[in-house]
Amino acid sequence: MNNFERPLDLLNKAKGKEVLVQLKNEKQFVGKLLAFDIHINIVLDGTKEVVNGEVKKNLGLTFLRGDTIIYVSPSSLGEVKS
After folding, report:
1. What is the pTM of this model?
2. Across residues 41-50, what is the average pLDDT?
3. Per-residue pLDDT at 76
4. 2 burial level (CB within 10 Å; 0-12, 13-18, 19+)
5. Is 7 helix (H, G, I), strand (E, B) or coil?
């Protein structure tokens, strides 16, 4: 069983790792999770915009506002084509 008592515990474990972020406007971003706050505002490094499993843009260091985020998931980079 996982040792997650609170939802933010999961994000703490993901710090420094690649995550996939789905936004309300149907955009997806993949990048290394650097930081987040209680509003789920997120800072990603090496960010890439992904469309249909393919990288469309390299954005680098990126801030994503928490109220635009639907979910954050561990990234499966094998599915993303550069």
Report:
1. 0.84
2. 97
3. 60
4. exposed
5. helix
